[in-house]
């Protein structure tokens, strides 16, 4: 079973003066602005790193929740923050880290078992795996 979720982005004109808009097929985001100023100057709008952080935090929270339930724990609450770091890399930039911070309240579990389940969920969360994945690119070029 394969589930495909989509998003789209549009950016024009090119370079720092350009402005983009990102939309999710679900409609949760529609024409959300992004650009140089939202990425590097904290202006209103979003940016790729913030979107990755939201995806990683929500995916990890769900993966851990399911893993805890599979281990027999059904009472609790998880709060996950993700901080995605963008750093200068030569002439460009690189995303160098996604730091997850977890605040968990789970009834009836000891810390060693919780730690093992939490670490396994971090390694096996689909977005954690994506951040290590091969990236493909198909394109159409118009001149």
UniProtKB/TrEMBL annotation:
<dbReference type="InterPro" id="IPR015946">
    <property type="entry name" value="KH_dom-like_a/b"/>
</dbReference>
<dbReference type="InterPro" id="IPR019904">
    <property type="entry name" value="Peroxiredoxin_OsmC"/>
</dbReference>
<dbReference type="InterPro" id="IPR052707">
    <property type="entry name" value="OsmC_Ohr_Peroxiredoxin"/>
</dbReference>
<dbReference type="InterPro" id="IPR003718">
    <property type="entry name" value="OsmC/Ohr_fam"/>
</dbReference>
<dbReference type="GO" id="GO:0006979">
    <property type="term" value="P:response to oxidative stress"/>
</dbReference>
<dbReference type="GO" id="GO:0004601">
    <property type="term" value="F:peroxidase activity"/>
</dbReference>
<dbReference type="InterPro" id="IPR036102">
    <property type="entry name" value="OsmC/Ohrsf"/>
</dbReference>
<protein>
    <submittedName>
        <fullName>OsmC family peroxiredoxin</fullName>
    </submittedName>
</protein>
<dbReference type="Pfam" id="PF02566">
    <property type="entry name" value="OsmC"/>
</dbReference>
